[in-house]
Amino acid sequence: MKKVFVVLAFICFEWIVAQPNTLFFKPETKIDEPIWTQTNRAGVDINEVAFINWNAGGTNSISALFALSSILKYEFRQFLWDNSFTARYGINGQQDQVLRKTDDVFELRSNLGFRKNKFTNWFYSARFSFKSQFSNGYNYPNTSNPISKFMAPGYLFIGGGAEYGKNIEKLSTYFSPLTLKATFVLDERLSNAGSFGVMPAEYDSEGNLIKDGERVRKELGMLLTSAYETTLFENISIKNFVSFYTDYINDFGNVDVDWEVVFDFKVNSYVKATLGSHLKYDNDVKMQVEVDNAETEEIEFVEEGAGVQWKQMLGVGVVVDF
């Protein structure tokens, strides 16, 4: 009996020695480390139409859209820092016409969020965004006087507020009661004309310049945004982004709207199709209409009130992640 007891005691001792971390020592805790993740994507969409002896008529054309996006994310404990860069440039060439621009976007976004613990879906957030374009824009077929340029306009948003997102990378709603919006018009001719809501230049009765036009327009207001991304079917996904902004000082209640919806149709790892819609309304951006001047017999552009801007996109192309 004593031998049996000794054997059992020896076996228990061996088992205890083999597992010291669970009995005599505290389990090792996982050390929190910052996590950096980066995603880059480049793509090109090309559409072409050619006619030879086509009895229904038509115009030869070719268009291309180049796109580049980069997303850099930082996570550490309850902090989340999300940065993104987007660049798009589209051109279209038609028979007997000059090359025309179809898309032009240069955009930077940064979002810093903090939550009290990992169980809550509410974040304290601070946001920054900047948007402009690469090259001149025209009211085609007139290419002598640009109606927009790089930093004319340029839009800057800086603000803070609260953001709700159960899965913040796929669905989030952000509200900022205090957001600064700055509109830059750094081109002298456009700023003197009062384009994009800046104060125009002042002239005397003889047409002499008294005061230059405003180069920067500042607004302080309220911003509400919502972003949603989901997979509808196996190879079809949708992205939706909408923002509403109203200025406290200049015209409270007059809401600027920016709403973009994009459908992605995935053919395989490299080929995809895109169908998109982009709707905008900004009371500071006035529409320009062509008018024939009876005296000079030339076409002039007359500024009218603000209107809804809408752009539709459809393309098939190649994308590469790196």
Major sheet details: 12 strands, antiparallel, barrel
Taken as a percent bin, the fraction of beta residues is over 45%
From N to C, what is the helix and strand string? HHEEEEEEEHEEEEEEEEE
End-to-end Cα distance? 71 Å
- CATH uppermost class: Mainly Beta
Radius of gyration: 29 Å
Based on CA inertia axes, which overall geometry fits? flat
CATH fold name? Outer membrane phospholipase (ompla), Chain C
Average pLDDT number: 86
Q: How many domains make up the 3D coordinates?
A: 1
Structural class: mainly beta
- The stretches of 5 or more residues where confidence is low (pLDDT under 50) are 1-8, 13-18, 20-29
Q: How helix-rich are the residues, as a percent range?
A: under 10%
Spatial strand sequence of the major β-sheet: 1-2-3-4-5-6-7-10-11-12-13-16
Describe it.
The protein is built from three helices and 16 strands. With 322 residues, the chain is mostly beta strands. The chain has a single domain, classed as Outer membrane phospholipase (ompla), Chain C. The strands form three sheets. The chain has a twelve-stranded antiparallel β-barrel with strand order 1-2-3-4-5-6-7-10-11-12-13-16. Strand 8 and strand 9 form a beta hairpin. It is flat.
How are the SSEs ordered, and which strands pair?
Blueprint: H1 2-18, H2 20-23, E1 35-49, E2 61-76, E3 79-94, E4 100-114, E5 122-132, E6 154-164, E7 171-184, H3 188-192, E8 202-203, E9 209-211, E10 216-233, E11 236-247, E12 255-266, E13 271-281, E14 286-293, E15 298-306, E16 309-321
Q: Key terms for this structure?
A:
58% strand, 8% helix, 12-stranded antiparallel barrel, two-stranded antiparallel ribbon, Outer membrane phospholipase (ompla), Chain C, 322 residues, 3 helices, single chain
